[in-house]
From TrEMBL:
Protein name, per record: Uncharacterized protein
Family named by the database record: Belongs to the short-chain dehydrogenases/reductases (SDR) family.
Species annotation: Arthrobotrys musiformis
Pfam families: adh_short (PF00106)
Gene Ontology MF: a single term: oxidoreductase activity
Alphabetically ordered keywords of this record: NADP, Oxidoreductase
Residue ranges of the TM segments: none
InterPro entries in UniProt: NAD(P)-bd_dom_sf (IPR036291), SDR_fam (IPR002347)
The keyword Zinc-finger appears for this protein: no
Length: 333
């Protein structure tokens, strides 16, 4: 699968189905009372994670908002509570830095010490097109470290409580959501360059410097899709469902490092709320059952396609291979 074809595929999807999707078919009005249920949404101090957290809290759920900044987290909690003063749910900030693996176990431990159930983890947090010189605390390319390695470690610490919740929660309601992107269409052949990630994602994926941050972002987002596929295979007998949504092309802080996207935003980008609805569908829609385990979700809440070579890779064991690779490379965290 050539880079040129991937670029063409992403462009086509951008200007057609995924770029200008039909009206949402699953919205706030379709969500029943969530009293007693518990959700964790990373990166929910702003953007689409914030939009999802608002909806969950408005339906009386207990919601953990995970992020790096105590100040931003406190502000988000205050704003949501002010917007929904009648909610009987709970809202709590959980300090977590996905680019530093040493912060993840303590954050997960705090949640586990307070809860006996967890109905969904939404791995929403991420970074896009950051300078290639940036590294995570453990030396990974910052995008791969934040978008892939950190969420994997967090998921590992929360896996047991999800499995236990699935034993008594309504069938197919316990979910893991690995947020992807339309950029996954331009990932390397098969979705992941193991030669690149064996070196912690530091070597360039392109000889054209301006493209390298974007290709590394694409690889990290495709890796999220492959993680969902691998999770669905590895944990298929637990009752927990994993999906990977492209939330849509949205006006959020994610593009703060891209002058081009900020400039073109008024033409091609949609309000963050719509991305929240894509995540809402992935997290709660009754249309998602075991037959959809590992599926790709496209805007604004539909099961959608992925590049054929990536699907072929996953169908031949590539998802499970990647899951096991991450396990091996994050020992000790």
């Amino acid at each position: 699968m050539s880079l040129l074809y991937g670029l063409y595929s992403a462009l086509w999807e951008t200007v057609t189905s995924e770029g200008f999707p039909p009206k949402p078919g699953f919205e706030e009005k379709d969500v029943s009372d969530l009293s007693g249920k518990v959700y964790l949404v990373t990166g929910a101090t702003g953007g689409i994670g914030f939009e999802l957290a608002k909806i969950l809290y408005s339906k009386n759920a207990k919601v953990y908002i995970a992020g790096r900044s105590e100040e931003n987290g406190t502000a988000a909690v205050t704003k949501i509570k002010e917007e929904y003063p009648k909610s009987d749910g709970g809202l709590e900030f959980l300090r977590l830095d996905l680019s530093d693996l040493t912060t993840i176990k303590p954050a997960a431990g705090k949640l586990l010490s307070q809860e006996r159930r967890l109905d969904a983890v939404v791995h929403n947090a991420g970074v896009m097109a950051v300078p290639t010189s940036w590294r995570s605390a453990q030396g990974w390319d910052h995008q791969f470290g934040t978008n892939v390695v950190g969420p994997f470690v967090l998921q590992r610490h929360l896996q047991n409580i999800l499995v236990e919740t699935a034993k008594f929660a309504p069938k197919d309601s316990v979910r893991v959501v690995f947020l992807s992107s339309i950029a996954a269409h331009v990932a390397p052949p098969g979705g992941i360059s193991y030669e690149n990630i064996e070196a912690k994602g530091i070597p360039p994926l392109s000889n054209i410097p301006i493209l390298d941050p974007w290709l590394k972002y694409a690889q990290s987002k495709c890796a999220n899709t492959i993680m969902a596929k691998g999770y669905a295979e590895k944990y298929k007998d637990t009752g927990v469902i994993a999906v990977s949504p492209n939330p849509g092309n949205l006006k959020t802080d994610l593009m703060r490092h891209s002058f081009l996207l900020r400039t073109l935003g008024g033409v091609f980008l949609h309000p963050a709320r719509y991305g929240g609805l894509t995540e809402l569908y992935a997290t709660l829609s009754p249309e998602i059952d075991q037959s959809k385990n590992g599926s790709v979700i496209i805007p604004w809440g539909r099961v959608g396609p992925m590049r054929s070579d990536i699907i072929e890779n996953c169908n031949s064991g590539g998802g499970l291979k990647f899951w096991n690779w991450l396990e091996e490379h994050t020992e000790g965290f």
